[in-house]
């Protein structure tokens, strides 16, 4: 097992450099991207792998609001992900202020589904987990990640893979600019209610939520298994 700490690995250029190059490439192909969303952080350069190692799921946030310009940077990062036929299936619904408050109320309704998971999480964790899902660590921003509803299995597979890539871009960009985030699918139980509140069109489905804000904790990275994840065939 390997415990990653930021700074241990390096590939020599920053994630934002990488995204900026990709963006330049997109612009070179005459696809319109607003200049206002160009990436630039002012944060010292970290390598892509440094950023990956520094990203942890954050479950406690400060009340400091996240400036809109930073959310726009995250959307730019999200938009740079690969997708089948470049179909960019992802759309993000960003809840702040009153929408964020209403989303919290809906999440509270969903916590009774936790009972089904008590045997997994253990009774002693129950209180903590209940608080986490009710409050989402006081995250000032919650992003609902959506993709189109389809009966086509391949399109569905492509949609999930592309949207997962797009979400990871967003999480890494958030890390680089000092924001914390947590991916969550526990919202599955109440995703219809959340979609209604955020006015997500019926032809799209919410696949995950991202809690976002300035971190108020610095968790230890959960261990990672590296040795056994690859099978080499020569
Ligand atoms: C698809 C997906 C769904 C997840 N759902 C939840 C969730 O519902 N609640 C939660 O607290 N964390 C959730 N997580 C975060 C994982 O628990 C976390 O990524 C994992 O434990 C590794 O920790 P790290 O993100 O700090 O590296 C989810 C992560 C992924 C990728």
Describe the structure.
The protein has helices at residues 15-28, 48-54, 68-79, 97-110, 118-121, 123-135, 153-176, 191-197; strands at 91-95, 141-148, 180-184, 204-213. It has 234 residues and is α+β, with helices and mostly antiparallel strands. Helix 2 crosses helix 7 (153-176), helix 3 packs across helix 7 and helix 4 packs antiparallel against helix 6. It has a domain at 58-213: NADH Oxidase (3-Layer(aba) Sandwich), CATH 3.40.109. Mean pLDDT is 85; it is low at 1-13 and 22-43. It is globular and about 50 Å long. It is built from eight helices and four strands. The protein has a four-stranded antiparallel beta sheet, sandwiched between helices.
The proportion of residues in beta strands is 5-15%
What is the residue-averaged pLDDT?
85
Q: Can you tell me the CATH superfamily of the domain at 58-213? A: NADH Oxidase
Ligand species: flavin mononucleotide
| Topology, number of strands | 4
User: Radius of gyration over alpha carbons?
Assistant: 18 Å
Strand order of the largest sheet: 1-2-4-3
According to CATH, the fold-level topology of the domain at 58-213 is NADH Oxidase
Share of residues in helices: 40-55%
Helix-strand blueprint:
Layout: H1 15-28, H2 48-54, H3 68-79, E1 91-95, H4 97-110, H5 118-121, H6 123-135, E2 141-148, H7 153-176, E3 180-184, H8 191-197, E4 204-213
Antiparallel strand pairs: 1-2, 2-4, 3-4
The structure holds flavin mononucleotide.
